[in-house]
Structure formats: structure tokens, C-alpha cells
């Protein structure tokens, strides 16, 4: 019973992409298996999700997927543009952080110069919004 409540809360928060609204459970499970697979890189996940969407989604869901994909591509391009405008020190730190996970990433951040840290936080805030701010505040960086 508790799991059913958690699913409802996740749905209310909009945790699933809009293109998965109303899809049959068996299709949803295929997408969720990809989302949760920690053995795949982000690029591998994107590729598998794209392949699956093109092969199983139809109608409105396929249209929503195409819109979602275009929106993500635009956001990614804007983020890359902001990355390119970082100072050399912030670019170097950002590159190193791409290979770090979890606590390692936050420990690395704590050792950075305050100006570099601020540059990175501003860039991430533009991409992740309030979630990025809460994440940084909770880790006391």
C-alpha cells in the first residue's frame, strides 16, 4: 500500500516525462528499466530511450516525445554555450567533476576557489533551477 502512495506522489511531482503519460504498464516498465540502469552511461540511456520511443510510442505520446527531445536538445545547447563562457579555471573544474559521482563531486567542490565555485553554481542553477540551489545548499558548498 505504501508503494502505491509513493507512485502517486511521484506522478504528482511530474517525475515521469510527459511522453510517458497514459502508456500501458508494460511499456512504462521498459522505459523505467532504462532510467534505473546504473550500468549505462547517459549517452547509452539516451540512445536506448530514443530507440524504444520510436518503436513503441504512437500518436500523442510519440509527438510529446519528439517535443521533449527537441526541448532537451535546445537546453543542452544553451548549457554548452554557458560552459564555453566559463573562466579557464571553472572549465577545468567542470571537466574534472564530470568524472566524479556523489560525495566525491561535493568534496571536490569544497576545495575550489570561491569565484570558481560561484561560476559553476550559477551555470548549474540556470540548468537545474531550484533543484540545483537546494542541492548545493543541502551539501553546504
TrEMBL record:
* Taxonomic superkingdom: Eukaryota
Which InterPro entries does this chain map to? Answer: SXP/RAL-2_related (IPR052823)
Q: PANTHER family of this UniProt entry? A: ONCHOCERCA RELATED ANTIGEN FAMILY (PTHR21593:SF23), PRION-LIKE- Q/N-RICH -DOMAIN-BEARING PROTEIN PROTEIN (PTHR21593)
Q: What is this protein called?
A: Protein CBG13940
| Originating organism | Caenorhabditis briggsae
- Taxonomic lineage from the root: Eukaryota, Metazoa, Ecdysozoa, Nematoda, Chromadorea
